[in-house]
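Sequence decides. Our protein:
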Amino acid sequence: MKEIIFKNNNSKIIIDSNLSYYVFFKLFMYFLEDDNMSKNYIISGNRIQDLKNVLENYLNEILKKWYKKPDEKELQKHSTRFEKIEFNKEIYIVNYRMSEVGRLVFVVYNILKMLDASYINYENLNIIIKE
C-alpha cells in the first residue's frame, strides 16, 4: 500500500504499509475537501485542529470497538510489549508490539500528540504519502 510520513520541526512519524491502510482512509476523506490531491500536504493552524478532531474521533471508535484490557499475567510476563496511553481522561494499556489494534492505537495517539505540539508551537505539519 502506502507509507505515510508526518513531520514537524521536532519529530517524524513513519507509518508503514501495514498500518497505513487503516490511517489512509481517514486522511483520504479529510483531504477530499481539497481540490489539490497531491502526495505532499503542508497544514497549519485550524487545519491541524480539524485533522486532530478527525483522528480523535477515529481513535475513540477504535477503542470502543476493539480495546480489551490485558490481564495481569500477560502484563507481568511481557511488560515491554505494553504502553500506557491517556485518552479522554481514561488510561488504556495497549500492546503496541504484538497487536495490530494496539499498534494502530499507539500510532494514532502519537500523531495526536504531534498535532498538539505543532498547533501549540505554531508549526506547520508536513504529511507525505508515498506509494
In short: DSSP finds four helices and six strands in the chain.
